[in-house]
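Reproducibility note. Readers wishing to regenerate the assembly model reported in the main text can use the exact inputs given here. Chain order matters: entities are listed in the order in which they were concatenated for prediction.
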Amino acid sequence: MIIALDVMGGDRVPRESVAGAVQAAKELGMQIALVGPRNLIEDELARHAPVPEGLHIVDAAQVIGMDEAPAQAVRQKRDAGINVAMRLLKDGGAAGIVSAGNTGAVVAAALLNLGRLPGIDRPAISAFFPSTEKGVLILDVGANANCKPSYLVQFAHMGATYVERIFGVQRPRVGLLNIGEEEMKGNDLAQDVFEKLQKSNLNFVGNVEAKDIAAGIVDVVVTDGFTGNVTVKVSEALLEFLFTRIKTAIMSKAHYRLAALVLRDAFRDVRRKLDYSESGGAPLLGVNGIVIVAHGRSDAYAFRNALRTARDAASSGLLSALTAVPKK
Amino acid sequence: MIIALDVMGGDRVPRESVAGAVQAAKELGMQIALVGPRNLIEDELARHAPVPEGLHIVDAAQVIGMDEAPAQAVRQKRDAGINVAMRLLKDGGAAGIVSAGNTGAVVAAALLNLGRLPGIDRPAISAFFPSTEKGVLILDVGANANCKPSYLVQFAHMGATYVERIFGVQRPRVGLLNIGEEEMKGNDLAQDVFEKLQKSNLNFVGNVEAKDIAAGIVDVVVTDGFTGNVTVKVSEALLEFLFTRIKTAIMSKAHYRLAALVLRDAFRDVRRKLDYSESGGAPLLGVNGIVIVAHGRSDAYAFRNALRTARDAASSGLLSALTAVPKK
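Running the prediction on these inputs yields the following structure tokens for the assembly.
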């Protein structure tokens, strides 16, 4: 089984993407198609001599520049890496894709080359929200700013199927992200979705707030792409903000700095558990193929884990399970 | 000038609310009407002998129980503290109110007793979001799950007026909470509000994401009450989650615990700067009176600061400034 890697997608590429593929090949014995400009990939591979077996270069001459509108560029540059990788997937040359590129570009390329799963109205981008357990799958976090109730029901089915197949969770607990104020059980969309989810055959636990998610009372959280995107961005910004604040406070005095040296490993552990690189990316669900979206800032280790996630998803029969989910 | 305190509103009352009023009277020389059951207030005051000048008891016999639906209870129990305090405000017996009670109840009581400001369609609950500077006012965070574009424009005007009057910020920078994905500049609501804010006479800086708010590039952020509530809840849950994680990691080894002792003050500083108790509550804007909503978990110090905020707001001419803001 070959997993395609969009080598040029991400903030720290091709250095970290290629290094991640080398790790995945060496440590996990994976077969990986490195999709991107051949010369750049060869230069990077030269840094890892002897190059492990299992790495294949698939040339994609066009690169999407930082200054281009990503989704539009995807439609114009048919030989950009993300498009070449998607076509490889569609033609059976790869079983899954990993990209740390702009999510709008990944969604556009997936819709352009793979299309949607039968019966699914809209694909959804997912992410992992920190929780006491291994993290909660939340979707949609940005593919659909405006959602109809039926979209969220489909998201719920797809998210539950993913968690069941990939993590082996039986009857995953599904929650609807909502607000807790009395006499205002959410906006019109949430109220409508609530009723629909109650009638579904899902293990629907009802409305959840952020504290419920963090406490690990659900496995999957559904929301519209606007709220989901804000949720994910707030989480990221706040964690970054807090760690910066702690660092600044610690650096302000010599005896703080000494004490912090002792605690370095403890901090690293905490941070790692909250880190995107551990989760190894999250799926774009609802398109006709296994697409794992890794974080834009992914380092080699994060790419390695995302590649493993793609392999696990591809070998789990996820796609046929997703095809079988109820669409209403 | 007298500020009314809803003594029984909050999680740690009447102990902390009365203690906060005592602090405000003693340290800030404030005049405070303690509104609640007379006997309970007297018992608490006895703990602070000699009681400082400036504290007045206004008996409110009815108490809203933990098991009651707050907003409904407000309508049924006309002699609940929050209603008595609002009537005091309306009749000129107080210049402002502080409550740490359920926000749904506070909003209901304000609408019931004070009504809206002329031309304002909906009141908005505000909150402070952490930032590199002193915190950013975000509204609505829960009064209106469904919003029309015009509501958000009114929120923007009211928020800017508040920040200008209370913090002396000239031409406050206003941002619209939105998502950054390309080719999807937010949902329909955000797109519509964006255009309206551009045409306003506000200092509108455009769309902002959480990282922009944290970086302090705006003074006021507007959003609908659903998204705003999720944002605030996510922030709270995540900070709580992270501090718990750090604590657990530190307690796991003896030498970590020793090092953490040294860092205790540094941590306390970081936490305090993020703490609701420093901000001293946030205004309910759009009702015909100065209403400061304090955090449900407020301690004495938080109540003291909220009382000070109410006094500052009342003496700043905020209400007449709010009455003068454009409504479209």
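We highlight two features of this model. The domain at 126-276 of chain A is CATH 3.40.718.10 (Isopropylmalate Dehydrogenase). Chain A touches chain B through 66 residues (CB under 8 Å).
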